[in-house]
Design goal:
- The chain contains nine helices and 16 strands.
- The chain has about 350 residues and is of the alpha/beta class.
- The protein has an eight-stranded mixed β-sheet, with helices on both faces. A four-stranded parallel β-sheet has the order 13-14-15-16, with helices on both faces.
- Strand 13 (about 235-240), helix 6 and strand 14 form a beta-alpha-beta unit.
- The longest helix has 20 residues, at about 320-335.
- It is globular.
- The two termini are about 40 Å apart.
- It binds succinic acid.
- Succinic acid (SIN) binds near residues 20, 39, 104, 105 and 133.
């Protein structure tokens, strides 16, 4: 790890972890075509140099490059590395808060991953972990990265009336729980959508804050982080007009551990899937139902009675349900090793009932 101000090593640290993304991207012709660029080109220490003069007093910035990638290439091993780094930093008494710069394409997965593996610990230790990114590369004339990074550093470091430790995201002048951030437009500059945001500057919205506290009260225990190469294999399959039974039966002879079904409407799937899904459940493949609509909840036995053992995902989107199922399957494995008889359904159900910030 590198400190950007060696004389300030005794001050509380904000650890800034670089994962890459557009915030660290460079366009070859930024004035004419800022959207044609390569993500993950600039080191996190160089990004920090641009905001150093504006950071709040009384803290020092320490940076660490975890990865420098386009987040569409994010691997499970990189999630493990990020999660372990965050866990370690939370325990470090010199670290007051943590910022993670990340590509927006898969920030949705990283947000839920950090919430489920580090959220309780962050809350208990009273430290904030802030995810941020950008929609324009670092050399674009109106690059949004520096202001997002600065906002994230402020959120990680300042007391903020009553806002507890936890896993948040800050972008474009708004803040939300990181598990509520997702990219919902392919190219628009306001593509990262916050489920239920508060302003990231000025006063925090009190009803948002009570929603955050309700989620934190409901999330009672972090899940273990899978070892780098031990993530259970889980795929997302989308139901659609003309869906075929082979989309499911294809997996029956494979080593897949779970399937997330992105159904239509309330999370129903094509009748062609019914028989092979029963077979998948009989073979011990974990099944979770979610909705491809991108909003609203998927509830048990709606619209049809669930296949035995198949769980509805609540408000989790398909990418979030996939991470949740992987963590639940891993937690079942760890529980078995410890002689406990908890199942992946026990762990997944705790996640699927987390309240939504209204
Ligand atoms: C990425 O996700 O790494 C590229 C896109 C972005 O950061 O907005």
């Amino acid at each position: 790890m590198s400190s950007n101000n060696r004389n300030a090593d005794q001050l509380p640290h904000i650890l800034v972890l670089g994962m890459g993304g557009t915030i660290a991207g460079l366009a070859s012709n930024p004035t004419e075509n800022p959207l044609q660029y390569e993500a993950g080109q600039i080191e996190i220490s160089a990004l920090l140099a641009h905001v150093q003069s504006a950071i709040p007093s009384g803290i020092s910035l320490v940076s660490h490059q975890v990865a420098n990638i386009n987040s569409r290439d994010l691997s499970e091993a990189q999630l493990t590395l990020l999660g372990k780094t965050v866990q370690e930093a939370l325990e470090n008494p010199m670290v007051r808060g943590i910022v993670v710069t990340h590509g927006t394409d898969t920030i949705e997965e990283t947000g839920i991953f950090l919430q489920l593996t580090c959220g309780k610990n962050a809350q208990n230790l009273g430290k904030r972990v802030i995810l941020t990114g950008a929609m324009l590369p670092a050399n674009a004339p109106k690059a949004d990265g520096p202001s997002n990074l600065l906002d994230a550093i402020r959120w990680a470091s300042t007391p903020l009336d009553n806002c507890p430790g936890g896993i948040y995201a800050v972008m474009d002048g708004m803040a939300c729980m990181a598990m509520d951030l997702a990219k919902r437009h392919a190219s628009a500059l306001n593509a990262p959508i916050m489920g239920s945001p508060s302003s990231s500057a000025g006063l925090i919205n009190p009803s948002w804050l009570s929603g955050v506290k309700a989620i934190e009260a409901a999330w009672t225990e972090d899940l273990p982080i899978p070892k780098e190469h031990e993530w259970p294999w889980v795929e997302i399959l989308t139901s659609h007009a003309g869906a075929r039974s082979e989309t499911i039966s294809h997996w029956l002879g494979s080593k897949v551990a779970g399937l997330v079904l992105a159904g239509s409407g309330m999370g129903g799937f094509h009748q062609e899937w019914q028989k092979p899904l029963m077979e998948a459940a009989n073979r011990g493949i974990a099944l979770v139902r979610t909705s491809r609509t991108g909003a609203g909840a998927t509830l048990p036995d709606m619209p049809d009675k669930d296949i035995p053992g198949c769980l509805a995902s609540g408000t989790l989107t398909a990418p979030r349900a996939r991470i949740a199922l992987q963590l639940a399957l891993n937690a079942e494995k760890q529980a078995k090793l410890a002689g406990k008889s908890l199942t992946w359904q026990d762990f997944f159900a705790r996640i699927a009932v987390l309240p939504e910030i209204g």
